[in-house]
C-alpha cells in the first residue's frame, strides 16, 4: 500500500536525496581505488559500507516523499539499522588490525548480520504501527530482532569511531605534519552523527536522523580527503591510504 505525500514536507525531508547522491559518488570512488590498487580489502569494505549508507537514505527519501510500505520499511531497516555502519567498521578492522584478526571477526560477525537481515525479512509486522512518512523498526512483530541490532551497532561504533579516534590520537602524539590527525577526527565525528540522529528519531524526531546522516557523510568524505593529502613517512598505517 502506497500513501499520499503529506503537505507538511519541509526542506529537511529532501536531505536524504542529497545524501544518496553523495554516497553513490563516494562509493564509486572507493571501489575504483580498490580496483586500481588491487590491494587493501578495507577499501572494498568501505565501498560496500558507503553503498549501503546511500541505499538506506534512498529508502528514507522514498518513504518520506512518496509514502511508506511494509516492503520499503523493511528494506530501510536492513540497509540502515543493520548494515549502515557494519561494513565501514569491518573495513577499519582490516586496515588497523592484523589480517588474521580481521578474518576471524568477519567469520564471527557476518553470520550474525546475515541472520538479522533474514529475520527482518521473515518477521510478521504490526500494520497499525506503519507510519505514513516515517521509517521505523516498530512495525516488526518479532521484537527480539531490535535487541540484535544494538550488538551490531555497538561493534560498528567500537571499530569505526574507536579506530578513527585512536588513529587521530596517534597522529597527534607523533606531531604528524600532515592532515591525517584532523582527517581522522572528522571521520570519527561523522561516524557518530548518524547514531545520534537515530536515537532522536526513535523519540519521534526523524529529521534529526536525516541531518545527522547528511552532515556525517560530508565529514567522513572530508576526513578521507584530508587523510589522503599526506602519505605516511614511516611504517605506521594512515587511516585511509
What fraction of residues sit in β-strands? under 5%
Average pLDDT confidence is: 85
Helix-strand string: HHHHHHHH
Rg, Cα atoms, Å: 18 Å
Instruction: Using the coordinates above, name the CATH class.
Output: Mainly Alpha
How many strand units? 0
CATH architecture: Up-down Bundle
Distance between the termini: 46 Å
At the fold tier of CATH, the topology name is: Rhopdopsin 7-helix transmembrane proteins
Helix content: over 70%
Number of folding domains?
1
Question: Which structural class do the helices and strands define?
Answer: mainly alpha
Uncertain regions spanning at least 5 consecutive residues = 1-7, 233-241
Strand count, sense and barrel status of the largest sheet are: none
Principal-axis shape? globular
Which helices and strands, and how do they pair?
Blueprint: H1 15-37, H2 41-66, H3 70-82, H4 86-96, H5 99-122, H6 145-173, H7 180-202, H8 206-229
Helix pairs in contact: 1-2, 1-8, 2-3, 2-4, 3-5, 4-5, 4-6, 5-6, 6-7, 7-8
